[in-house]
Design brief:
By secondary structure, the protein is mostly helical. It has one domain. The chain contains eleven helices and no strands.
Amino acid sequence: MTDTSGSSGPEEPGAPKPGQNVPPDDQPTPPTGFQQPSPTPPGQQTPPPSYPQQAPQSRQWHPQGLGKPGVIALRPLNLSDILDGAVTAIRKYPLLILGVSAAVAVVSALLNLGASLWLLPDLERAASLDPNSMTQEQALDQAFSLLGSTSVVLGATLVISLLTQTFLSGFLTVVMGKAVLGRPVSFGDAMKELKTRFLPLLGLTVVFTLAVVAGAILCLIPAVPVYIFFSLAGPALILERSTVGQAFGRSRKLVSGSFWRVLGILLLALVISIVITIVVGIPFNLGSGAFDSVINPGDVSGLSIGALLLQSVGTIIAQTIVTPFVALVTVLVYIDQRMRKEGMDIELARAAGVTPPQQW
């Protein structure tokens, strides 16, 4: 007689056990190693075992931490580690990071160039008018017309920048999440992960921008804490697949207690990006001025299509370099804060399948 009460064969690896809750297939889960820490049960004082707040006392320090499967060592990072990790990621995935950044910069520059060319006739007309031959009413009409055109161009530029920068920051966050684990990543893979998170990331970016602008309008100082405390919300939303509100909360929690450190790192990355942008833009700005003086020597407005094209080329080159650098530094700051506060280096080592160094 056949026994039907027991199992009909050996259990398949990874098969759910009886009574085990299995999440539905369509429920998105964070990438392995980047999940949020489990909340501490009521009455329990110790943190979850997967996320120890501090290493055991018997562990000895090792320069590679729990190993280096990707662009950084799995241990709390110092400033040079973060900057080097961003540069290493660019060198390891040059076509993916610089190629996509260049494509986004070209699209953004072309759209902004179109908006500038649309405004150019109004600027040339305003520059050619003689104030002495105009009545007060004509001067006001001209001023309001120019103000309206400028407002439209600035609004279009803001929308273009918001969309392109949101896409690029989300894309680069996905790439860095793979680079930390040493996993290969293609454009299709990154786009697949970003596709479901783009709209929440766009909403987060809009709220974040409005909050910083509101702080800047009140005073410059309140804008700085707002920017720093919520600067890690983007990586949290992408890598943890959290909601917009949860991402802001996670960023504030991770930055709390490390405000000045995070401020210093992000400020340094910003200064580096500004210096690179200025250095790259110098020859193109000089070239656009020389082009104008040769082609249009009598043009008092100092603007021409050729000059705008040269400046756009300089902007494309600069943004291709500095935008991914700043975005990758921000992601590494997020990962570093989680390794320091939540022991995420242990989870990342498990996800990467690395064996800890023997010098313990």
